[in-house]
Amino acid sequence: MTLGEIRRAWFIVKTFLTYGLDEFIPQTRITLPIRLWRRTLFWVPNQHKEAAAGARLRLAMEHLGPVWIKLGQMMSTRRDLFPPHIADQLAMLQDRVAPFDGVKAKAQMEKSLGGPIETWFDDFDITPLASASIAQVHTATMKENGRKVVIKVIRPDILPVIKADMRLIYRLASWLPRLLPDGRRLRPAEVVRDYEKTLLDELNLLRESANAIQLRRNFENNTLLYVPEVFSDYCSETMMVMERIYGIPISDVVALEQHGVNMKLLAERGVQVFFTQVFRDSFFHADMHPGNIFVSYDHPEDPQYIAIDCGIVGSLNKEDKRYLAENFIAFFNRDYRKVAELHVDSGWVPADTNVEDFEFAIRTVCEPIFEKPLAEISFGHVLLNLFNTARRFNMEVQPQLVLLQKTLLYIEGVGRQLYPQLDLWKTAKPFLEDWIKDQVGIPAIIRAVKEKAPYWAEKLPELPELVYDSLRQHKRLQQSVDRLATDMQAQRTRHHQSRFLFGIGATLLLSGTAIVLKRPELDFLPAIMIAAGIVTWLVGWRKTN
């Protein structure tokens, strides 16, 4: 470790102790040295004894900076790994965090643009409109067309801090399986690896720009979702310029109700937006927490969502989509045998999994849930329970499903906040059934024919030549096979002859040797037999080669 890393490590340790996070260390024999070091060497007192454990963890992460804030945000979504009193506190990290100096932000923008910001923009506001753990946004007006925009800029000098912190976080993750009784199930190294990839992806605003452009194109002229326009000519890895939007934050239920928004329709459309992204487009916004979702002021009776911050997106391949949709429908119908078979067929669990045992485990977990009214059942938590059950049967981790689960939990949480009576099952089932029919029915065949028709038309003139070449190659292949079979038969014949000659040679050698030992006076006959045996062996050896 470098001197800078050592200083950073001490700062992190000191912060953890200042907020009393050492109480998270389990009381086991393995952790005894750490607890002794805490009491003898690290004498920093807990200065926040009055705060709850979850609150102290959140405050410590805020104090440590962007990397730890982002880690806390991600941990808050893994309610399968962390108890509610921890996850609820960490969820507060999704709100506004302290901004950095607007002068530094302006300098970063000018470095990216290659000149004074006034060359391209008017009315630049040095005070940030909003700030997050990785970046912050400022408002301005474009000179060329007078449009109101927001300029997003990455926090300066954040990459070295991220790299140093990630090395330390990896070290902590490597210790957890040995320190915690349930450490291996938590798979800390895997969690940190996913977090690192997410973090580095968010540092590249060109990537976010491309994601936003794709999502906007998918919902162009759509009443369900609006994505702000990105002005890619001004974008770089550290800067992004997009249309400024005006909407009501999705978390401000009071403002939505005062504006006369149809809350039931809004909640149902949130579900439709999610499933449309996943199953129609195979491209979904995977960071749809309340801070990234707004509702348009226009047409409150026909509400439209506005989505920002497309730094994290997910996708599913064709097979995953089909298996997932069929899983959902099987759950709707409480067909647990089908769920178990689908998991095996998809390769999510090993092929040698006992389907009967797996079916019984799924039924044991899910049947009590279905005793409740459908409107009281959490779709996201059913999916979570399914994954946890499958994990006991050595289900391989599917990163795309983790993102999907996280996003579904976000969507369902927002939907129930807007309209507590939301029946997500009733909303989702028709969509999924129609999608399945579209994928395997007559429309799917017609669509496949249309997609392949240009290729077939291009290859049709070549068809006679392809048939001729195929027949000729088949003839050559048959000749090669016949030749190989003949050669193999000849080789087998030679081997048989060789074994026969080796047997004859061995018999002559042994017989000649026996005669020499018993009747030495008959030297002529044994010599002939031994010589004949040697000659026979040599002939057999030549046939072998």
Please state the overall shape, judged from the principal axes of the Cα atoms: elongated
Helix proportion: 55-70%
Structural class of the secondary elements? alpha+beta
Average of pLDDT: 79
What is the percentage of strand-forming residues? 5-15%
- Tally of DSSP helical segments: 21
Radius of gyration: 35 Å
The stretches of 5 or more residues where confidence is low (pLDDT under 50) are: none
N-to-C span: 64 Å
Count of distinct structural domains? 3
Describe the sheet with the most strands: 5 strands, antiparallel
Number of strands: 11
Family: Belongs to the protein kinase superfamily. ADCK protein kinase family. Belongs to the ABC1 family. UbiB subfamily.
GO biological process, one term: ubiquinone biosynthetic process
Pathway: Cofactor biosynthesis; ubiquinone biosynthesis [regulation]
EC number: 2.7.-.-
How would you portray this structure in words?
With 545 residues, the chain is α+β, with helices and mostly antiparallel strands. The protein folds into three domains: 3-97 and 160-197, no CATH class; 250-440, no CATH class; 484-544. It is built from 21 helices and eleven strands. It has helices at residues 3-18, 32-40, 53-64, 66-77, 84-90, 102-113, 158-179, 183-186, 188-203, 205-218, 253-258, 263-281, 318-332, 336-346, 355-366, 379-392, 399-418, 424-440, 442-459, 463-518, 524-544, and strands spanning 121-122, 130-131, 135-142, 148-154, 225-226, 239-243, 247-249, 284-285, 293-296, 305-307, 313-314. Strands 1, 2, 3, 4 and 6 form a five-stranded antiparallel beta sheet that branches. It has a four-stranded mixed beta sheet with strand order 5-10-9-7. Helix 12 runs antiparallel to helix 17, helix 14 (336-346) crosses helix 15 and helix 18 packs parallel to helix 19. The longest helix has 56 residues, at 463-518. The protein is elongated, with a radius of gyration of 35 Å. The mean pLDDT is 79. ATP binds at residues 129-137, 152. It comes from Duffyella gerundensis. Its main location: membrane. This is Probable protein kinase UbiB. Keywords: ATP-binding, Cell inner membrane, Cell membrane, Kinase, Membrane, Nucleotide-binding, Transferase, Transmembrane, Transmembrane helix, Ubiquinone, Ubiquinone biosynthesis.
